[in-house]
């Protein structure tokens, strides 16, 4: 039996899981938002990683030659989206149930009207989400259940008169947390067959689409290929899919890391510091890395590593969250933007407004003042992003400066404005160094954890010979 | 059992000394003894004793208050009286204690000072501290002794004469006036003879960490060991007896191959040997210590245990030059060394005691210690090639001790040390 190794990085904002094989190759990744119940967050991330691993294995099984054909490419991509819809729908069913029972317990005078409104909101969200996953690319947008639902729910609530706002929003707040904190069980095989069925329906009814130049050429190529060949593709893949669904993804060992690691239900010798994991993960992807900067949800770490990927020194902020992901989240709220919009908006700036406040909360007040004085929004945002990077640079300096090569990891590495300033300031202070940023930077901690699990490196505690492969 | 009894003996001796002092302090209205408030760095215990006065150390009271969980309310009291959040928490704890009745660590009221003796000017806060106390105690005489910094890494004859002159012309006359006792140089010389002896024992005690496992923790237990010399007993036969006793107890541990004693009993396995720079946190002292011994880390040397005297480099009190030797003592306290000297001293500790790592505990309150700490750490990292770690806490303000943050950093640090050790073993 093949052995796999799991790393779980339970961060303050997101929980990540990575599965590697015996050659340290990533076969599966999963991510979800961290919630009050850490075990559920860790379980979901792990399940996601295992599903992802099955899809990876499926691709390998199908083979490179076939996978490159447009109809197979399209089918597998769609299958993935529909599969996600299946998962989503099960959780959605649970949320709907909770919403209804929450509203039933209300004592508002217009309770009947609220129930009616809720039902009609649910009725209008359902097809939106269905369409988003099945016909559009909602599945590949990296959005979590909570975000997807609340966005649509809030939009629907706004269509109602003001007296409905409070009860309807209260109902959502009261229902989303318990729904998120319960584990919904899925059966991969059941879900994937169901997905194939939905796809079959979809392709059957696929209408011709006019090539109007609004989309890339490959889009039409894939569309045409699948329309004519979907039965063959289905037929070819069915056995492979069954095999993969039946395969036992045996997690031989695992390591937990991240801010919430002490709360993970792992044996003590399977818990590792995120500093070591981030460094090890970053070093694995970029083996010449000597300095790692990791900006996560609520801490920033500057880490120096040696040629083996082992940490030689580190510095971190732990007094204040200004300069971390949470700071960006707060700023996004202040501007009424989503996190993904922050970076692009900041990059429209003509200059960077100086932000004096070193405190997240005070910065909020400063931003309001600046807006009131007529300062441009992108300029303020640029100033805020720059301020974050300046903080990180001071940590780097304290840890011993930037050495070649420099690797930037963590969720915040996804923000393009932060990236711009990191590049600018690192070059400004340390000259030309190779800078590595990976699209999967957010998974580096979990990757390092999985790699430690494979090596079974127990630096601090005696090695327990007994297998640690029991499930979470 | 024999060992248990032995262990208790040094502790009993220390307890007797401390209780005796506070008892004497509580009875000054009956005995008429005069009281001198002063600081630990550069403390002139011998001179105070020559004039039959009793010492009070506000820093010691502050740390004792923290260990008794009283510092938070004292600090609050001082802040209520407009002491800013940024003021040294030793000062605020002391001022707060004063405002709440000046009840000392033994529950007895502390007497007012007859003299405020500033023995060390390297810490600017000390000066401001006594300026504050002067307002509270308008009848006290103030002596400000200026201590030249060892800027060029040495104590020149001019510096020594400069300080001896201050002692002769400014300190001694005031002490004579207040105590009513005439300066007796022979008495001082006799006291200094005991100081030298105590210094010899202390140096030997802190040198026992060269053994593996180390028989003592030179930081967490070390702060207890330096208690007697830091609260005015240097220069007494009692202190000499205490250190002699302590040394023999420690040597028994060495013979048996035992590690240090922790609040939870004997430390089982020595995994990491560390040198620590900076004062400890007092509000959560036990918790802080536990974070180390739980991970099998023992401190083999610390700068903090040298605040009341640096004996590692061979310096001792010399009774034949009484005022000059006191001058040297003041200038030779740890925070009066320049940064290269401190680096030299700590590097020697790392080398002599075969330390695996070096940790800085950066104290929010303390300028004397914090200035240059990071630069020293970088230099030591380069020179000694040991992994370095940096944690942050405070002396006596519990608001600045974040258990989970410190734990997180220490865990990462120990895992890093562990990896390093494993790699080294593989290479061997």
Task: Characterize the overall form of chain B.
Answer: globular
Largest interface: A-B, 21 and 26 residues
| Head-to-tail CA distance between termini of chain B | 42 Å
Oligomer: heterodimer
How would you describe the overall organization of this protein?
The complex is a heterodimer of chains A (472) and B (428). Chain A folds into 4 domains: 1-36 and 250-281 and 445-472, ATPase, nucleotide binding domain (Nucleotidyltransferase, domain 5); 37-81 and 191-249, no CATH class; 83-180, no CATH class; 287-437, 2-Layer Sandwich (Nucleotidyltransferase, domain 5), CATH 3.30.420.40. In chain A, 55% of the residues lie in helices and 11% in strands. Chain A contains 15 helices and 9 strands. Chain A has helices at 38-62, 64-67, 70-104, 111-134, 145-157, 162-180, 188-204, 217-246, 274-285, 325-335, 339-346, 360-372, 377-399, 416-430, 444-455, and strands spanning 4-10, 14-20, 26-33, 251-257, 291-295, 300-305, 311-316, 406-409, 435-437. Chain A has a 5-stranded mixed sheet with strand order 7-6-5-8-9. Chain A has a 4-stranded mixed sheet with strand order 3-2-1-4. Chain B has a single domain (20-181, 259-428), classed as Rossmann fold, CATH 3.40.50. Chain B contains 18 helices and 10 strands. Chain B has a 4-stranded parallel sheet with strand order 2-1-3-4, sandwiched between helices. The relative contact order of chain B is 0.13. Chains A and B meet through helix 9 and strand 7 of A and helix 17, strand 10 and helix 18 of B.
């Amino acid at each position: 039996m093949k052995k796999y190794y799991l790393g779980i990085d339970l961060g303050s904002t997101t929980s990540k899981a990575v599965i590697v094989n015996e050659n340290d190759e990533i076969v599966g990744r999963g991510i979800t938002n961290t919630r009050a119940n850490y075990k559920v967050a860790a379980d979901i991330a792990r399940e996601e990683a295992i599903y992802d691993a099955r899809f990876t294995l499926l691709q390998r099984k199908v083979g490179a030659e076939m996978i490159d054909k447009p109809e197979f490419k399209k089918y597998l991509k769609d299958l993935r989206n529909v599969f996600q819809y299946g998962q989503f729908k099960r959780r959605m069913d649970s949320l709907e149930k909770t919403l209804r029972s929450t509203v039933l317990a209300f004592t508002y005078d217009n309770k009947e009207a609220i129930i009616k409104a809720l039902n009609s909101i649910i009725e209008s969200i359902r097809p939106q989400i269905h369409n988003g996953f099945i016909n559009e690319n909602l599945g590949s947008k990296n959005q979590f259940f909570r975000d997807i639902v609340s966005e649509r729910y809030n939009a629907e609530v706004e269509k109602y008169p003001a007296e409905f706002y409070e009860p309807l929003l209260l109902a959502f707040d009261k229902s989303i947390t318990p729904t998120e904190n319960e584990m919904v069980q899925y059966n991969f095989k059941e879900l994937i067959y169901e997905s194939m069925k939905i796809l079959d329906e979809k392709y059957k009814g696929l209408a011709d689409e006019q090539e109007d130049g609004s989309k890339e050429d490959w889009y039409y190529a894939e569309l045409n290929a699948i329309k004519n060949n979907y039965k063959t593709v289905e037929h070819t893949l069915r056995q492979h899919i069954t095999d993969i669904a039946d395969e036992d993804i045996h997690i031989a060992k695992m390591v937990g890391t991240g801010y919430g690691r002490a709360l993970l239900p792992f044996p003590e010798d399977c818990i590792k510091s995120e500093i070591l994991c981030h460094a090890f993960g970053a070093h694995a992807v970029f083996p010449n890395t000597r300095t790692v900067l990791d900006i996560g949800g609520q801490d920033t770490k500057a880490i120096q590593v040696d040629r083996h990927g082992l940490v030689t020194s580190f510095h971190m902020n732990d007094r204040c969250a200004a300069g971390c992901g949470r700071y960006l989240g707060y700023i996004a709220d202040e501007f009424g933007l989503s996190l993904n919009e922050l970076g692009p908006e900041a990059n429209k700036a003509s200059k960077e407004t100086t932000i004096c406040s070193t405190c997240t909360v005070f910065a909020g007040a400063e931003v309001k003042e600046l807006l009131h004085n007529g300062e441009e929004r992108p300029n303020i945002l640029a100033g805020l992003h720059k301020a974050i990077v300046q903080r990180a640079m001071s940590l780097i300096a304290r840890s011993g400066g930037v050495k070649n090569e420099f690797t930037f990891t963590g969720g915040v590495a996804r923000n393009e404005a932060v990236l711009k300033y990191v590049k600018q300031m690192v070059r400004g202070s340390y000259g030309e160094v190779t800078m590595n940023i990976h699209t999967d930077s957010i998974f580096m901690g979990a990757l390092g954890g999985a790699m430690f699990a494979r090596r079974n490196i127990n630096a601090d505690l005696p090695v327990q010979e007994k297998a640690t492969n029991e499930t979470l | 059992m024999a060992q248990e009894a032995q262990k208790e003996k040094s502790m009993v001796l220390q307890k007797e000394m401390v209780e005796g002092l506070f008892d004497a302090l509580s009875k000054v209205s009956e005995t008429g003894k005069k009281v001198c408030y002063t600081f630990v760095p550069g403390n002139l215990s011998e001179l105070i004793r020559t004039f039959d006065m009793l010492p009070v150390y506000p820093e010691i009271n502050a740390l004792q208050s923290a260990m008794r969980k009283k510092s938070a309310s004292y600090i609050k009291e001082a802040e209520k009286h407009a002491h800013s959040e940024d003021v040294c928490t030793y000062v605020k704890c002391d001022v707060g204690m004063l405002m709440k009745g000046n009840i000392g660590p033994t529950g007895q009221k502390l007497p007012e000072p007859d003299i405020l003796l500033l023995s060390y000017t390297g810490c600017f806060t000390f000066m401001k501290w006594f300026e504050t106390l002067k307002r509270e105690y308008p009848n006290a005489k103030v002596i400000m002794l200026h201590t030249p910094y060892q800027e060029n890494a040495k104590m020149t004859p001019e510096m020594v004469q400069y300080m001896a002159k201050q002692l002769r012309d400014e300190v001694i006359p005031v002490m004579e006036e207040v105590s009513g006792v005439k300066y007796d140089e022979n008495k001082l010389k006799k006291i200094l003879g005991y100081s030298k002896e105590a210094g010899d024992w202390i140096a030997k005690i802190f040198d026992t960490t060269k053994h593996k496992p180390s028989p003592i923790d030179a930081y967490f237990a070390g702060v207890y060991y330096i208690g007697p010399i830091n609260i005015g007993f240097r220069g007494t036969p009692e202190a000499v007896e205490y250190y002699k006793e302590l040394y023999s107890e420690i040597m028994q541990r060495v013979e048996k191959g035992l590690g240090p004693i922790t609040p939870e009993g004997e430390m089982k396995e020595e995994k990491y040997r560390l040198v620590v720079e900076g004062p400890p946190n007092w509000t959560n002292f036990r918790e802080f210590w536990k974070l180390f011994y739980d991970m099998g880390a023992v401190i083999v040397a610390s700068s903090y245990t040298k605040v009341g005297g640096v004996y590692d480099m061979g310096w001792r009190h010399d009774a034949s030059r009484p005022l000059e030797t006191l001058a040297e003592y003041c200038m030779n306290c740890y925070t009066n060394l320049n940064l290269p000297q401190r680096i030299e001293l700590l590097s020697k500790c790392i080398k002599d005691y075969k330390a695996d790592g070096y940790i800085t505990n950066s104290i929010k309150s303390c300028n004397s210690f914090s200035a240059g700490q990071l630069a020293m750490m970088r230099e030591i990292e380069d020179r000694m090639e040991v992994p370095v770690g940096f944690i942050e806490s405070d002396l006596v303000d519990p608001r600045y001790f974040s258990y989970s943050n410190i734990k997180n950093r220490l865990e990462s640090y120990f895992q890093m040390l562990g990896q390093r050790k494993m790699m080294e073993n593989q290479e061997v």
